[in-house]
């Protein structure tokens, strides 16, 4: 059985992951408007991955006899002036998520909740390394091609190669390594 404090923390994180999906959808829509379909596809794929992150918290709370609380999802900002700024918003958000995961780790330690610590949060510690790395690298590459339309088109093609995660894997994240 999960403790009340841990349950509240995990429900807040469930909301933050759903907000992340919203943010990635918003950035994807922005890229679509710039005719950069590869970046847009990458963002949509990441939005689905964020829903799979949300499902990990959802499933964990339920599996441990807890109550899932679905809080309202905030409206993401939808206006950016450059691709660097738009992708930068994703990187900034990932930094926030990393901090939230670290705070949950601290809470799990205080509560002596090893199921949350090892069964759930350990995976997210590793995952946030990847999330920060991939968003920062994309921002840095975008900065490199800032004055080159050709470079931007090539990068767009590269980003578009990312496959979309199937919906069944979003619902049951145990099936995916995302
Ligand atoms: Fe996430
Ligand atoms: Ca990932």
Descriptive labels:
single chain; 178 residues; mainly alpha; Ferritin; 6 helices; elongated; binds fe (iii) ion; binds calcium ion
Q: Describe it for me?
A:
The protein has a single domain (4-171), classed as Ferritin, core subunit, four-helix bundle (Ferritin, Up-down Bundle), CATH 1.20.1260. It contains 6 helices and no strands. The chain has helices at residues 4-33, 37-63, 83-110, 114-144, 149-159, 167-171. 38% of the residues are buried. The model has no long low-confidence stretch (mean pLDDT 94). The structure holds fe (iii) ion and calcium ion (CA). Fe (iii) ion binds at residues 17, 20, 50, 53, 97.
Biggest β-sheet description: none
CATH class: Mainly Alpha
**How many helices does DSSP assign?**
6
Termini, distance in Å?
A: 27 Å
The CATH H-level homologous superfamily: Ferritin, core subunit, four-helix bundle
CATH architecture: Up-down Bundle
**Percentage of residues in DSSP E strands:** under 5%
Overall shape: elongated
Bound molecules: fe (iii) ion, calcium ion
Mean pLDDT: 94
- Rg, rounded, reads 17 Å
User: Element order, helices and strands?
Assistant: HHHHHH
- Content-based structural category: mainly alpha
Quote the CATH topology: Ferritin
* Count of beta strands: 0
Helix coverage percent of residues? over 70%
Low-confidence stretches: none
Give the domain tally. 1
């Amino acid at each position: 059985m999960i403790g009340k404090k841990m349950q509240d923390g995990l429900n807040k994180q469930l909301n933050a992951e759903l907000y992340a999906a919203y943010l990635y959808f918003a950035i994807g829509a922005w890229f679509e408007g710039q005719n950069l379909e590869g970046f847009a596809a990458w963002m949509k794929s990441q939005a689905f991955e964020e829903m799979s992150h949300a499902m990990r918290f959802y499933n964990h709370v339920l599996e441990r006899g807890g109550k899932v609380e679905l809080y309202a999802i905030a409206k993401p900002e939808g206006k950016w002036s450059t691709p660097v700024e738009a992708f930068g918003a994703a990187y900034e958000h990932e930094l926030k998520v990393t901090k939230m995961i670290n705070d949950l780790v601290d809470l799990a330690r205080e509560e002596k909740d090893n199921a949350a610590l090892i069964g759930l949060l350990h995976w997210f510690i590793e995952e946030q390394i990847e999330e920060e790395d991939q968003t920062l690298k994309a921002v840095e590459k975008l900065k490199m091609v800032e004055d080159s339309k050709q470079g931007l088109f090539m990068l767009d093609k590269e980003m578009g190669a990312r496959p979309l995660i199937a919906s069944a894997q979003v619902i049951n994240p145990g099936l995916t390594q995302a």
